[in-house]
């Protein structure tokens, strides 16, 4: 009963906060960019479809009990001559519904992408902060390591890390650990760009007055880096994370396409594309086309959203 009179006040505050956010420069820039709006809608739909795959998917493609080999190679929107069933995007060689496999495969691709970017961001931001703020031999070792890694293509570094990690994993746990090994491989191959950007921004921020004032009042190095410098270098990190998400999803698809990524028991979009290319020249084009189209739409939309975010957070373009 005591909270009832406060509800109109809380509602008014919520409306005021929403209006302030809606009228902000960031929201205005988003509304004025049709590419950003369309990209956001596409990304939101694909992520929502992947999250709700168990609800949306007509079939569970990874449950052998639900598979019927008689449904194999059914074209899209065509009645199967043996079972009479109709599938929206057709079926593959094992009779699995392609639409369902795309939804479940996209879940794995997004999970790997988000997890790998998060791992790369944590490693890169931490090393970039430490290198720039502490300096000396610490900075030299970190940045020379980053320079050495940049001389190799990221996909080759990911394949090397994946091979080493999989090699030291017991054979009976390799399929269960394949996804986590994949995340580790992509994350460790992508931390360099975060570290370089954060280092450059930290070199600028650490000489400003607010950092010097924090030193004068006795703040520790860790507190200054985490509570004062880090919030002021996050804008470029968010932009890189958005673009890196698309690159991580493509890297996962590339590794899975090459057969060193997601296991066949839990196929991602890359695995589905690898399976589909085996039937590309035999007439079953849909097995390859629709997973590739889903990967293209996802990666392209995230990239376009990242490009807009880079411009929106650039103070020189305001």
UniProtKB/TrEMBL annotation:
* One Gene Ontology term from the biological process aspect of the record: transmembrane transport
Q: Name the CDD domains on file.
A: TM_PBP2
Provide the protein's localization: Cell membrane
Transport found in the keyword field:
yes
Entry superkingdom: Bacteria
TM helices/strands, residue ranges? 35-57, 108-134, 146-165, 177-198, 229-251, 285-309
Q: Which UniProt keywords apply?
A: Cell membrane, Membrane, Transmembrane, Transmembrane helix, Transport
Q: How does it sit in the membrane?
A: Multi-pass membrane protein
Record-annotated ABC transmembrane type-1 domain positions: 106-306
Q: Name one Pfam family in it.
A: BPD_transp_1
Q: Which is a Gene Ontology cellular component entry for this protein?
A: plasma membrane
Q: Which family does it belong to?
A: Belongs to the binding-protein-dependent transport system permease family.
Q: What name does UniProt use for this protein?
A: ABC transporter permease
